[in-house]
Amino acid sequence: MRIAYFAWVRERMGIAEEAVELPTGIATVGDLVRWLATRDARGARAFAEPHRIRAALGGAMVGADAVIGDAEEVALFPPVTGG
Amino acid sequence: MIRVDVRPEPIDVAAELAAHDAGGHGASASFIGRVRGDDGLVELFLDHHPVLTARGLDELATQAAARWRLGALTLIHRVGAMAPGDTIVLVLASSPHRAEALAVTEYLIDRLKTDVMLWKRETFADGRAAWVEQREGDHARAERWD
């Protein structure tokens, strides 16, 4: 599965995207964010405040309880600020 | 005709209006969002998703077309680096009557602030750079249309 990062999440992670094998027990977007926050120092910086993280799965914005399933891409990013 | 685009190139408002208006419409409304040079801002950068940003704008256009009688719609959002005065977003909406054209324009500009994958970063003359925070008021405005 691929994780894509945007805005300050991308800056703090230092990469735009990465391919990962999800560890057993990571089922939802919220699980993924909590795992990334504990995986390494850059993840701790990017995901220290999970309530400021938004996600898109299969092309749609989703909540933290969304099940990742066999999605090809999970996008993680701050609240949007277009317009 | 519905035209939706996300692009790094400058938006030529006059050319877009001419293209939009070619069919002639009873009522046309417009919104033009420009980069403000407040507080010594020298660059506004718009980050976006290569696929989902355009899809989000398409979905908003589809929802607008289902909700109001649209004669024509142009919805263009610029991405990448911009300078003060540059056009960030252009909404042109036409309908047989003014109330619908105005409502569609307001709906689209309200919803794209909360529903579409776009992120602003401001860089100032003194070198400071910061990602713009979402404003509570933007959600309140967007939710009026639910």
Keywords:
heterodimer, A: 83 residues, alpha+beta, five-stranded mixed β-sheet, B: 146 residues, four-stranded mixed β-sheet, four-stranded antiparallel β-sheet, 8 strands
The CATH architecture of chain A can be named as Roll
- The average pLDDT of chain B is 94
Write down the secondary-structure element order of chain B. EHEEHEEEHEEH
What do the pLDDT scores of chain A average to? 95
- The CATH homologous superfamily of chain A is termed Beta-grasp domain
User: Which percent range fits the helix content of chain B?
Assistant: 25-40%
Explain the overall architecture.
The complex is a heterodimer of chains A (83) and B (146). With 83 residues, chain A is α+β, with helices and mostly antiparallel strands. Chain A is 29% helix and 23% strand. Chain A has one domain (2-77): Ubiquitin-like (UB roll), CATH 3.10.20.30. Chain A is built from three helices and five strands, in the order βαβααβββ. Chain B has helices spanning 13-20, 52-67, 98-115, 136-143, and strands at residues 2-7, 27-34, 41-48, 72-78, 80-82, 87-95, 118-124, 129-131. The longest helix of chain B has 18 residues, at 98-115. Chain B has 146 residues and is an alpha+beta fold. In chain B, α2 (52-67) packs antiparallel against α3 (98-115). The radius of gyration of chain B is 15 Å and the shape is globular. Chain B has one domain (2-143): Molybdopterin biosynthesis MoaE subunit (Aldehyde Oxidoreductase, domain 3, Alpha-Beta Complex). Chain B contains four helices and eight strands; from the N terminus they run βαββαβββαββα. The A-B interface holds A 4, 6-8, 10, 56, 59, 61, 75, 77-83 and B 33, 46-49, 51-52, 55, 77, 88-89, 109, 112-121, 131-134, 138.
What are the SSEs and their pairings?
The complex is a heterodimer of chains A (83) and B (146).
Chain A: E1 2-5, H1 7-13, E2 17-19, H2 29-39, H3 41-46, E3 54-57, E4 60-62, E5 73-77
Parallel strand pairs in A: 1-5
Antiparallel strand pairs in A: 1-2, 3-4, 3-5
Chain B: E1 2-7, H1 13-20, E2 27-34, E3 41-48, H2 52-67, E4 72-78, E5 80-82, E6 87-95, H3 98-115, E7 118-124, E8 129-131, H4 136-143
Parallel strand pairs in B: 1-4
Antiparallel strand pairs in B: 2-6, 3-5, 3-7, 4-6, 7-8
